[in-house]
Amino acid sequence: MSNIVSYEERIKSFSWDAAKAELGLKDGQPFNIGALCSDRICALGLGAKTALIWEGSEGKERRFSYDEIRVLSNTFAAGLRGMGIVPGDRVCLFMDKIPELYIGAIGILKLGAIAQPLFSAFMQDSLITRLADAETRAIFTTTRHVRKVRKILKDLPKLEKVIVLDAEGFQLGEREVAFSMDSAPRVESFEPFPAGPETPSLLHYTSGTTGKPKGAQHVHGSILSQYLTTKWVLDVQPDDIYWCTADPGWVTGTSYGIIGPWVTGSTQAVLDAGFSSSRWYEFIQKHRVTMWYSAPTAIRMLMKEGTELVRKFDLSCLRHLCSVGEPLNAEAVLWSKEAFGKPFYDTFWQTETGAIMIANYPGMEVKPGSMGKPFPGITATVLDLKERQPLSKPGTVGLIAFKPGWPSMFRTYWRNEATYKSKIVNGWYISGDRASIDEDGYFWFVGRDDDVINTAGHLVGPFEIESALLQHPAVAESAAVGKPDPVNMEVVKAFVALKPGFEGKENLDLEIMNFIRKKLSPLAMPQEIEFVKSLPKTRSGKIMRRMLRAKEWGEPIGDTSTLDDEG
Ligand code: PRX
Fold first, then answer.
1. Looking at the structure, do residues 430 and 495 belong to the same domain, yes or no?
2. Which of the chain's termini has less CB crowding within 10 Å, N or C?
3. How far apart are CA 249 and CA 26, in angstroms?
4. Closest ligand 1 atom to the C-alpha of 346?
5. pLDDT given for residue 368 in this prediction
6. From the alpha carbon of 448, which atom of ligand 1 is closest?
7. In sequence order, what are the residues at sequence separation of 6 or more whose Cβ sits closer than 8 angstroms to the Cβ of residue 239?
8. 528 and 413, same structural domain?
9. pLDDT at residue number 564
10. Mean pLDDT of 319-342
11. Which residue CA neighbors atom 13 of ligand 1 most closely?
């Protein structure tokens, strides 16, 4: 049955209770995301249905039915309990997009522990920051990534268990234990932790302008938002083969790469391989993917290879396409229409919002270039930049803000309530993005309101990069900003003032780039380093990234009256 109902109809009769009723949730009675995504689907008689089609980089394929997801996630939950992990403990998932990542997350949730996924390309400094802050008790990883964890163990006294998923024939080290999803005795039944709407579920780290990355803490109640948005925006229907290209190290990969498809009982396909246009098309063709959730950078990468490549494949299976993470340029929408016969629908949300907030969706008139309208049940506005009050005049640029209270809103930043509170002003949650709203209520994205860099849809905090840069022996001071890039939208550029004696050192820029890649991740690595004598600062000594960024983008530099010296 189609999920399509007009936007106006949805708004008129909207209540989150509709989701509760469909999921069989009753006020005051416990529920659990892990169980709703597996046990419940089996109880509906869909145990034999394929939940996951997984394909690895070498072409190996595995399929899991809902009943297997149910039993294997029980096995994970019981395994963790056997290791002494209790509800509320943070359990990290640090691996490639292997089946254990998806099923393990469900197991952690069933136990009532907090799942903390981290992107597998993170290197040691990125890991330490996030594992130390969360006081993570256990980490699931594989032999491919365990070495990075070994290097930082001494800095992580709270990390008691390093659980290696493919340890057969592998020499285990300090604090390491083996757990194999495939060979552990299967646990047929496991009583899921009786969670409530406020019980912590997932912890996703995200970067801001200042300070270290912050852990957005989500709750089991988020399922209401994820369920309805998956149905109504992504339009996932029972017979769909759904492919979300995001890695569960990021929020899209959990909200819509684990929870969304499984709570709706659909079949999801996962490709654990690096990007390649032909491989992606082959994957869609082979598995008859019908619903595809991806990102503008990926679309631009596909565009580079043109429609000729598209024509070599039979992609007629595609029914609905959505995108998230960065502005979706009108060009990409037009190209996708030409290439796939379907436009990409833009959706806007954040790690903090837990689910789609503003979107174009079936049943609604789409204005290309606009992010669409707020999801039913979401009160969204733009606030004026100074007073932070809602702007009433259409077309005025302000800060995107949401009225708190939707089910999937983050409940705090982990051990950082002060920063959480600072994001709620005059009763609005301030997103950190700027937009305008037109006379028909459509939102038009303008840009970030802070210095966070969005590279290929991933947020990178300048502070984290600058802190790492300062650890290089040649660096006296630095500033990291986003510079325009035709494919990734932005890439990191670092301005660096050197310590005396390092000027003119050959290949120093490459050396520093590599230094950051090895410490943080390939995403955070500056693509360009510009050596400067000094950096522009305010009178109080704060580096003015805004000015450096404006230069890169060819924008007016703005008020420089607070500058001390020119960079
Ligand atoms: O700046 C906005 C941008 O990505 C940010 C959120 O990033 P993150 O928390 O990592 O979550 C990413 C995926 C949910 C936003 O504050 N962003 C996200 N979607 C869009 C977008 N920018 C423009 N258009 C979008 N559709």
1. no
2. N
3. 31
4. 26
5. 85
6. 1
7. 266, 290
8. no
9. 52
10. 94
11. 325
